[in-house]
Design brief:
Blueprint: E1 7-12, E2 15-20, H1 31-45, E3 52-56, E4 61-63, H2 68-71, H3 76-82, E5 98-102, E6 105-107, H4 109-116, E7 119-123, E8 127-129, H5 143-151, H6 153-162, E9 165-167, H7 168-174, E10 179-181, H8 186-198, H9 202-216, H10 220-233, H11 238-248
Parallel strand pairs: 2-3, 3-5, 4-6, 5-7, 6-8, 7-10
Antiparallel strand pairs: 1-2, 8-9
Helix pairs in contact: 5-6, 9-10
This protein binds 4-(N,N-dimethylamino)cinnamoyl-COA.
4-(N,N-dimethylamino)cinnamoyl-COA binds near residues 65, 68, 88, 131 and 140.
């Protein structure tokens, strides 16, 4: 019998929900789980019917970080040979937006995984932090960079040097999360937002996302260049013609992703 998948997924219309499934280990992110996660994202990317993804854990934990047991006795040579962690950035590589629906712990690699997503919806019980310092390491999947860009270098520095956690409201005030909702609602809220995005023209969604993402990593000047090119490119899409003519004809547009 096959073991239970470490990442479950279900598709509801244009929205796919991916659930990290190691609840007993607070969804600690071991290499097998990350391989499965990237595999599911890559498969869904090829499915044109799916337009937006939601990534979640459970009420107690989104993910409490990379699996400490799996790396405690590792050597640098082993990590190089196995290309350990090399696939983490693939979470961002594919074309569809991903909304993180976070409840409970999002720590270390768990916080970094949430930050690899495009939007973060938090339950009131969510806790974010980069506690790596407490186990003798530093963040390795973007914590020192993405967190500093999201909440500012001073607040990020405090979190990274102390390893302390912040709650959902603090994360919201700092700009790390989009919305904070009651724990009964966080997943539904993310799925509803995903359905809203999924109703938009997919190629425009894709190129808008790409422009925002590239822009976050480059100069304003280069970012503006990418924005302008992507803008021009959209005039080759049927959805642009449909969107603008539907507006002029005072009717609702039907987007086909072409
Ligand atoms: N790894 C492995 N197991 C974990 C875990 C983790 N990160 N977090 C929790 N668990 C396991 C616990 O060992 C425990 O297992 P059993 O003892 O029951 O077998 C079970 O989950 C429940 O945890 P606790 O008993 O500790 O539950 P509590 O409610 O008392 O505490 C806690 C919850 C979240 C405060 C605590 O579990 C905790 O402090 N966990 C560790 C948090 C942490 O230090 N996270 C950072 C890990 S380092 C990179 C990519 C990523 C990374 C690095 C590089 N590259 C791309 C290069 C990421 C690194 C990290 O995330």
């Amino acid at each position: 019998m096959n073991p239970e998948p470490l990442v479950l997924h279900e598709i509801d219309g244009p929205v796919a929900t991916l659930t990290l499934n190691r609840p007993k280990a607070l969804n600690a992110l071991n290499p097998e789980l990350m391989d499965q996660l990237i595999g599911v994202i890559a498969d869904l990317d090829k499915n044109d019917a799916v337009r937006c993804l939601v990534l979640t854990g459970n009420a107690r934990a989104f993910a409490a970080g990379a699996d400490i047991k799996a790396m405690a006795d590792s050597t640098p040579t082993q990590m190089v040979k196995e290309q350990r962690f090399a696939n983490w950035s693939d979470v961002q590589r594919y074309s569809k937006p991903i909304i993180a629906a976070v409840s409970g712990f999002a720590l270390g690699g768990g916080c970094e995984l949430a930050m690899l997503c495009d939007i973060i919806i938090a339950s009131e019980t969510a806790k974010f932090g980069q506690p790596e310092i407490n186990i003798g390491i530093i963040p390795g999947a973007g914590g020192t960079q993405r967190l500093a860009r999201a909440i500012g270098p001073y607040r990020a520095m405090e979190l990274i040097l102390t390893g302390n956690q912040i709650d959902a409201q603090e994360a919201y005030a700092a700009g790390l999360v989009n919305r904070v909702v009651p724990v009964e609602r966080y997943l539904r809220e993310a799925q509803e937002l995903a359905a809203e995005i999924a109703a938009r023209p997919p190629i425009a969604v894709r190129l808008a996302r790409e422009a925002v993402r590239y822009g976050a990593d480059t100069t304003v000047r280069d970012g503006l260049e990418i924005e302008r090119r992507n803008f021009y490119l959209l005039f080759d899409s049927a959805d642009q013609k449909e969107g603008m003519h539907a507006f002029l004809e005072k009717r609702k547009a039907t987007f086909r992703g072409e």
